[in-house]
Design a protein that fits this description.
It contains seven helices and no strands. Helices cover 77% and strands 0% of the residues. It has 150 residues and is mainly alpha-helical. It has two domains: 3-88, Hypothetical Protein Yqey, Chain: A, domain1; 97-148, Arc Repressor Mutant, subunit A (Orthogonal Bundle), CATH 1.10.10.410. The chain has helices spanning 3-18, 21-41, 47-70, 74-88, 97-111, 119-130, 136-148.
C-alpha cells in the first residue's frame, strides 16, 4: 500500500473520531476515487497514482467553483473551495517559480529539447519530476514560451 493512501485512511479515521463531517466526506470521496482506480486497473495504487487522482479531483473542483461563481451560487462555490483546500493538504510542497524555472531548464537540457516538436518529451520528463508540485497548465505555457524562444 502506498504511504499516501495509508495517510489518507488514517485521516479518515481521525475525521470520524473528531466528528468533522465536511472533512470526512471529502476524504471518503478521495478514497473512493483511489479504490475505483485500483478496481479499474486491477493493481495496487502507488503514490504517483494517488497524486494523479488528487490533481484530477482538484481540477474538477476548481472548474465547479468557477461555474458556481458564474451562476451566483457562493454557497456551493465555498464548498468546492473548501474541498480543494482539504485535498491540497495531501500534495507535496509546491515548487517556487525559481525552482520551476531551474527544473524546466534542466529537463530541457537533459532531453535535448530545442523546438516545439520536443514538447512531448519535455512534458513527459516533467510529469515524473513535478507531479503534484506544480500546475501542468502553467508548466505547459512556460515550456511553449521557452521552446518558441519568447
Amino acid at each position: 500500500m502506498s504511504l499516501l493512501k495509508a495517510r489518507i485512511q488514517d485521516d479518515m479515521k481521525a475525521a470520524m473520531r473528531a466528528g468533522e463531517k465536511e472533512r470526512l466526506v471529502t476524504v471518503r470521496m478521495l478514497l473512493a476515487a483511489i479504490k475505483q482506480r485500483e478496481v479499474d486497473e486491477r493493481t495496487e495504487t502507488t503514490d504517483t497514482a494517488v497524486l494523479q487522482i488528487l490533481e484530477k479531483l482538484i481540477k474538477q473542483r476548481r472548474e465547479s467553483a468557477s461555474q458556481f461563481a458564474a451562476g451566483n451560487r457562493p454557497d456551493l462555490e465555498a464548498k468546492e473551495l473548501g474541498e480543494i483546500a482539504l485535498l491540497q493538504a495531501y500534495l507535496p510542497a509546491a515548487l517556487s517559480p525559481d525552482e520551476l524555472d531551474t527544473l524546466l531548464r534542466d529537463v530541457m537540457a537533459a532531453t535535448g529539447a530545442s523546438s516545439m516538436k520536443d514538447m512531448g518529451k519535455v512534458m513527459a520528463a516533467l510529469r515524473e519530476k513535478a507531479q503534484g508540485r506544480a500546475d501542468f497548465g502553467t508548466i505547459g505555457e512556460r515550456v511553449k514560451a521557452l521552446l518558441s524562444g519568447k
